[in-house]
Amino acid sequence: MYTRTTHSPAETRRLGRWLGERLQAGDFVALVGDLGAGKTHLSGGILTGLGVERTGGSPTFTLLWEYEGRLPVYHWDVYRLHSPDELDDLGYEEYFYGDGVNLVEWADRVAALWPEEYLRIDLTYGPGEEERVLTFAGTERYAKLLEDLNDADFSA
Fold first, then answer.
1. What backbone torsions phi and psi does residue 112 show, to the nearest 5 degrees?
2. Is residue 156 included in any domain, yes or no?
3. Which residues, in sequence order, are CB contacts of 35 under 8 Å at separation 6+?
4. Beta strands in 11-62 (DSSP E)
5. CATH number at residue 77
6. pTM assigned to the model
7. What is the pLDDT of residues 73-106, one digit of tens each?
8. Which residues face 64 on adjacent strands?
9. pLDDT tens for each residue of 28-37
10. Beta strands per DSSP E along the chain
11. Largest Cα–Cα distance of the chain, in whole Å?
12. How far apart are CA 126 and CA 142, in angstroms?
């Protein structure tokens, strides 16, 4: 487990971009946090790092946005789901267990469906108004990424 504090939305996006530049085919990134905790800023940075050009924020009113970057990217927002079973109709297995990168906001709501290998990022409010605390936990697949993250600098 690794914890990192960002001091602004821009720094959260830079951290996300760094992550996105290093994600690989089949990666599953689970974002967990309250409303306003920074999931959308982090997601935007990850998408940029994956080479996705997009506008807009979180896919809150659309359950899944599909993007082409350097890899296929599946950006999920499962906030409005009442049950993980609701993903069955979308054939989530093809996405979650496929060769693209899955970026899932509110991922704790569908934790029973996660693949065995995942990177979980919990976002919480920090002591300062714009500060966010990001706690990273990942399976063995993400050990090197988390080690490298420990030495990375995201300040302006």
1. -65, -15
2. no
3. none
4. 28-33
5. 3.40.50.300
6. 0.90
7. 999 988 888 788 888 888 889 999 999 999 999 9
8. 76
9. 999 998 887 8
10. 2-6, 28-33, 64-68, 72-77, 101-105, 119-125, 132-138
11. 43
12. 25
